[in-house]
Specification:
The chain is an alpha/beta fold. It has helices spanning 2-36, 70-82, 93-102, 121-131, 150-153, 166-177, and strands at residues 62-66, 87-90, 107-113, 137-141, 158-161.
Amino acid sequence: PLNAQLDKMEEAIGRAAELCRHLLDGVRRESGTLLAAHADPESGTPPTSAPGTARAGGIHGAVLIVDDDESVRALARWVVERAGYPAVAARDGDEALEKFRADPGAFGLVLLDLTMPRMSGEEVLVGLRSIRPNVQVVVITGYGEDAVREGELAGTAGFLQKPFSPDALRAMLQRCAGK
């Protein structure tokens, strides 16, 4: 039993380290992009056309990030906000549905973990769709896409496998913005 617990801890540490590497890579790229942009001489701020500062056109509203892993929520929030979208985080399905129910029209996209305690991502998806049937949802999970049941992906806008890089999430946001 002790070895099994140690194995789980080692696996969790490995996932956290991988997420930290992705986050740091994204910070380095973002810093380089912003430093390369010419600042407006009067205000000292980057021009609105600088990469990473302009809001893409198609996702109208905030991005709801639903994941029980705090490091995943933090990485996703960082990427979403730097892409120009407001981000709202929820640590489980109950909190996600509560926030969504309070203002369903405020959200343009939901990033939804499939594996969470108490309420599965699939149950949350059903709840979200009962409130607003056309909400865009991107499924995120540590399992490969082939391991996810077809029903869990039905009608979703996309799939991201954890750990995902900031670039992969940025690309997904751009793809969803075009829909």
